[in-house]
Amino acid sequence: MERGRTVKDIEEGDHERKGTLWSASAHIVAAVIGSGVLALAWSMAQLGWVLGPLIISGFAIITYYTSTLLADCYRHPDPITGTVNRVYIDAVRAYLGPREVFFCGCAQYINLWGTLVGYTVTAAISMMAVQRSNCFHRNGHDSKCESSGNLFMILFGVVQIVLSQFPSLENITWLSVVAVATSFAYSFIGLGLSMSKLISHRGFKGTLSGIAGSSHTAKTWNVFLAFGNVAFAYTFADVLIEIQDTLKSPPPETKTMKRASFVGIGLTTIFYLSLGCIGYAAFGNKAPGNILTGFGFYEPFWLVDIANICIVVHLLGAYQVYAQPLFGRFENTISKRWPEAKFLHKTYSIRVPFGATGPLSFTLSKLVLRSCLILFTTLVAMLVPFFNAVLGLLGALGFWPLTVYFPVNMHIAQRNIKRGNPKWILLQGLSMFCLLISIATSIGSMADIISSLKMAAPFKLNY
User: Fold this and answer.
1) Which runs of E-coded beta strand occur in 29-115?
2) Hey, which residues does 84 pair with through a beta bridge?
């Protein structure tokens, strides 16, 4: 394939790919490293010094392996010369049957949309943390510094409406690069503050088995949630094919994507182990749910503020990495249904500051439909402010099918691995193990949802 050539894809459209190893790695890190990295000290507190690092490392290996299987499914039937599948569900359609396509669509797009709601709530909490941090600095750490998140969620949604008008992931590589830079920034700040706290204690805190728990049942739920936090913190399978679709060729897209997955997951694992272990050593079994927004640190307040602002900036980019596949699928569906509608197809252009690729093109349908989806997402985030608990359940239900089940079964179909073959048995064993993890985490998430329902109030995110 000639460099710079547009390639024919399964949707019978021309699409020029310009992405590289580094742009794909940036998209992966932007999608994977979220503010959840700051909750790993809490997860370590539930698992302890023995199980915690093993679980973080184990899920890194599982995620990387299944991502290499999924990268080979970008083309069908051959991973090098086959027809391009531009989105995840097209790959499932090419390799598996219609029942799996329906199952995949439900799992992928519900999980993508649920992530957007969770990001909206999380960004608001970080902005509220900045407001409270300044209040604590002025009035003392024991002051009653309450803050409401509705205005912050609206502001976050307005910015996302503007960013959503970029056509695809290829047009917002710069945003992913900024998101990666800010994720490194707040991770290093959290790491540095945890290190300083650890040094001040002159010794490691924590136990081999983690928090004992008020009862065996409470301990079990928390361990399940910790498993889920670690497993789903690595998940990016629902956008992997879309990221791979941005890559130019040669070299083959699958080769570049596997290297990008190694870089992205490798960097992620280093951060997860560092922050999880050092955070647990600093706080021990009293580790907060989030070491920055949970006020594990009050001073220096300005540094805590910078870290939380970096979280918000990172979520602005990560939101679009998850939103663009949703936009693309929705717009492709309605365009095929009404191919002659001017509202859907007439293109307008405007010049944007610092636009390296020329003017920004958009359609009225893109402006209206993408804005409506973001407004609806923001409304749900405001209506159900404890949605992070529901998001945990959505993540639990989405992890096994998207990260493990479909990549494993598409690989079996692609390589024609026969039932009973040793590799078939190992692959199905991996799938069954991850299914059990998802079921256990779903149970823990349901317990958390029931607990959250007792204290939640619509349109009231107080912190």
Assistant:
1) 75-76, 83-84
2) 9, 75
User: Computed from CA positions of residues 236, 241, 247, 249, in that sequence, does the dihedral angle turn out positive or negative?
Assistant: positive
Residue 61's pLDDT is: 92
Cis peptide before 250 (omega within 30 of 0): yes
pLDDT at 169 over 60: no
Query: How many CB atoms are located within 10 Å of the residue 347 CB?
Result: 9
Tell me the C-alpha distance between 216 and 304, whole Å: 35
Structure confidence at residue 202 (pLDDT): 72
Share in percent of the chain as helix, strand, coil (round to 5): 70, 5, 25
CB 73, CB 411: distance < 8 Å: yes
**What is the tens place of the pLDDT at every residue in 40-91?**
888 888 888 988 999 999 989 999 999 999 999 999 888 898 888 888 888 9
DSSP conformation class of 170? G
Task: Specify the residue for token string 């608990």.
Answer: 389
Per the CB < 8 A criterion, the answer to whether 375 and 369 are in contact is: no
Question: CA torsion, points 343, 344, 348, 353, in degrees to nearest 10?
Answer: 130
Give dist(CA 451, CA 382) in Å, integer. 19
Q: Which residues contact 71 (CB under 8 A, 6 or more apart)?
A: 79, 240, 244, 253, 254, 257, 258, 261
Going by the DSSP 8-state scheme, the letter that residue 83 receives in this structure is E
- Could you give the maximum distance between any two Cα atoms of the chain, in Å? 71
Contact status, residue 107 vs residue 402, Cβ threshold 8 Å: yes
Q: What's the Cα-to-Cα distance from 241 to each of 9, 28, 403, 404, rounded to whole Å? A: 13, 11, 12, 14
- Positive or negative, the Cα torsion across 442, 448, 451, 457? negative
Rounded Cα gap, residues 364 and 98, in angstroms:
33
The answer to whether the beta carbons of residues 59 and 231 sit under 8 Å apart is yes
Does residue 148 sit in helix, strand or coil?
Answer: strand
Residue 57: burial class (beta carbons within 10 Å; 0-12, 13-18, 19+): middle
Q: Is the peptide bond before 252 cis (omega within 30 degrees of 0)?
A: no
**For the chain, how big is the Rg over CA atoms in Å?**
22
